Amino acid sequence: ALITLRQLLDHAAEYGYGVPAFNINNMEQGLAIMEAAKAVDAPVILQASRGARSYAGDIMLRHMVQALSEMYPNIPVCMHQDHGNNEATCMTAIRHGFTSVMMDGSLEADMKTPSSYEYNVDITARVAEMAHWVGASVEGELGVLGSLETGEAGEEDGSGAVGKLTTDQLLTDPDQAVDFVTRTKCDALAIACGTSHGAYKFTRKPTGDILSMETIRAINEKLPGIHLVMHGSSSVPQELQDLINASGGDMPQTYGVPVEEIERGIKMGVRKVNIDTDCRMAMTGQFRKVAQGDPSQFDPRKFLIPAMKEMEDLCRDRFERFGTAGNA
Ligand code: G3H
Ligand code: 13P
Ligand code: ZN
C-alpha cells in the first residue's frame, strides 16, 4: 500500500529508527529495493528525481510503483519527489500518484543559485499548503549541500556547481530552522551538515570539521519534533570502488558518509536518509565485472541480475543498520 512520508516518519520517530530513501529510475532498481525490504520486513521510500521522471516518464513511473506495491503487498511504500524545484514539479508529481514531495527551495528555481531565505520560506510554505490540501507530505531544505573542504556544491540535482559556498551556507542554522519549520509547516526538513551529492564527498575519512554531526544535534535540540533528512548519505563503500576499478573502471579514491555516522544521526532525529550513489555503484560494479569477465556476453539480463543482487544486498544492509528492518 502507498503511504505518505508523514505517516512513515511519524512511526519511525515513535520507534527511533531511520528510513533510507533510495532513488529509482527503472524496474531493476525498484525490484532490488523491494526484495531487500521484503527480506527484512522494512517499509520503503522510493524517490524519483526530476531526471528520473524524464528518463522513465511519469506514466511509467506511476505504474511501476503501483506494480511494485501490488507485488509486495505487505511492504508500505512512500513515493517521493526528490529535489522538486518549483510548484509545478511538485504538483505534477502528486497528480502522478506521488504521496510526498520535496520542495527544494535551498537553490532558486534554476537550481543553480543559492536561494534567499524569504524565497525559500515562501515557496515551501505555498507547496506545503497545496500538498496538504490533497493529503501529500512535504520535505523542505534549509542550507546548501556542499563540501566544507572545498566550498563546492557537488552535484545538487545533477545540475552542476553553484560557485564557492561559505560555511554559513553549508551548515543549517538551528535558529533559522525553527523559524523555517514554523512558517512553512513542512513535514520533514533536509539540513546541510557537510554532505554533498555524488561519489566525491570527502578527500579523507570525514571527521567533525568536515562532517558536522554537531549541526544535527543542535537542530534536534531546538526542534525535537521535526523529522530530519540527510541528503548525500551514500557511504561510497571501498569494496564498490575496488570492484569498479578492478574491472576496468577509473574512479579516483574517495570517501563518503560512514554508516556509523548515519546511525549516530538517527539517534539525533534523522529519519530519512537519501541514498543514490551507492546503488549506482553497486549496479555498475557488477555491469563492469560481467562485461570484463565474459566479453562475449550480450544478454542484458546477465548484467542486470547480478547488478540487482548487489544493490539488494546494499539496501538490505542499510535497512538493518538504520533500524528500518522489522517495521513494515
Ligand atoms: O539529487 C541527486 C540524486 O542523486 C538524483 O540524481 O538528478 O541524476 O537523477 P539525478
Ligand atoms: P548520494 O549522492 O550521496 O547518494 O545522495 C543522494 C541524495 O541526496 C538524493 O537526494
Ligand atoms: Zn539530495
TrEMBL record:
Protein name per Swiss-Prot or TrEMBL: Fructose-1,6-bisphosphate aldolase
Xref: Gene3D superfamilies: Aldolase class I
Top class in the EC scheme: lyase
Protein's organism: Actibacterium atlanticum
Residues reported to bind Zn(2+) 2: D104, E141
EC number: 4.1.2.13
UniProt keywords, alphabetically: Calvin cycle, Glycolysis, Lyase, Metal-binding, Zinc
Protein's pathway: Carbohydrate biosynthesis; Calvin cycle; Carbohydrate degradation; glycolysis; D-glyceraldehyde 3-phosphate and glycerone phosphate from D-glucose: step 4/4
GO biological process, one term: reductive pentose-phosphate cycle
Upper classification of the organism: Bacteria, Pseudomonadati, Pseudomonadota, Alphaproteobacteria, Rhodobacterales
